């Protein structure tokens, strides 16, 4: 017989699942590349390719733009950098979903989890304006009880602040939540927030090997998530 005192899944049943966005739910790299190259064209600079942009994703729009500019000559000062960021956001937020798509199994799996009574949320470093437009355009906004973006709090992932803020909005404790992401920042933020489990998808925009991260399991694909959530050990 299982000892309830030794079984965290009994003490803290999972009530919510928090998700990263880019690289976990949505492959958005192509739209980020197009917006970056539109900005670079206005600046008279050469374009960046898709592999480069994929390596720039994960730390929010300011870092993405900073890396794009650094790869094509840099910026003269902070004022120019801020102007380029504003212009990038204007370009990107006007249509963030033209070349983006949900990863296989995402829509169906999210619907199944919501129907099972789990509270779902998104914690992303992408700005809220583009986040909500992207979720709506791809038809999954309605399954989420709460969403926080890179401009929702003073800090972004890998800080625990946005994860804790999301869980507060979902009205669950960290011990009642699982975080699903694709990279090192997701793991660091979720661990710092004290969530019950951290699961990773095998695709996405990680810049370090997933096997070296302190996660609780790597999914075979997004559709594997319901089965993994039903298990006491990943």
Describe this structure in words.
There is one protein chain. The longest helix has 17 residues, at 78-94. The two termini are 20 Å apart. The protein contains 10 helices and 7 strands. With 234 residues, it is α/β, with parallel strands linked by helices. The protein has helices at 8-11, 29-42, 50-56, 61-71, 78-94, 106-115, 128-137, 161-170, 184-193, 225-229; strands at 16-19, 26-27, 101-102, 119-123, 146-148, 177-181, 197-200. A 5-stranded parallel beta sheet has the order 5-4-1-6-7, sandwiched between helices. The protein has a two-stranded antiparallel ribbon with strand order 2-3. The chain folds into 2 domains: 4-27 and 100-229, HAD superfamily/HAD-like (Rossmann fold), CATH 3.40.50.1000; 29-94, DNA polymerase, domain 1 (Orthogonal Bundle). It catalyses: 2-phosphoglycolate + H2O = glycolate + phosphate. This is Phosphoglycolate phosphatase.
Secondary-structure blueprint:
Blueprint: H1 8-11, E1 16-19, E2 26-27, H2 29-42, H3 50-56, H4 61-71, H5 78-94, E3 101-102, H6 106-115, E4 119-123, H7 128-137, E5 146-148, H8 161-170, E6 177-181, H9 184-193, E7 197-200, H10 225-229
Parallel strand pairs: 1-4, 1-6, 4-5, 6-7
Antiparallel strand pairs: 2-3
Q: Based on Cα principal axes, name the global outline.
A: globular
Q: Give the CATH class of the largest domain.
A: Alpha Beta
Provide the CATH topology of the largest domain.
Answer: Rossmann fold
Separate helix tally? 10
The helix/strand order is HEEHHHHEHEHEHEHEH
The share of residues in helices is 40-55%
Low-confidence stretches: 1-10
The fourth-level CATH homologous superfamily of the largest domain is HAD superfamily/HAD-like
Query: Radius of gyration in whole Å, from Cα?
Result: 18 Å
**Neighbour order of strands in the largest sheet:** 5-4-1-6-7
What is the architecture of the largest domain at the second tier of CATH? Answer: 3-Layer(aba) Sandwich
Distance between the termini: 20 Å
Taken together, the total number of domains comes to 2
Q: What is the average of the pLDDT values? A: 92
| Largest pleated sheet | 5 strands, parallel
Please report the total strand number as a whole number: 7
Taken as a percent bin, the fraction of beta residues is 5-15%
Question: What would you call the structural class?
Answer: alpha/beta
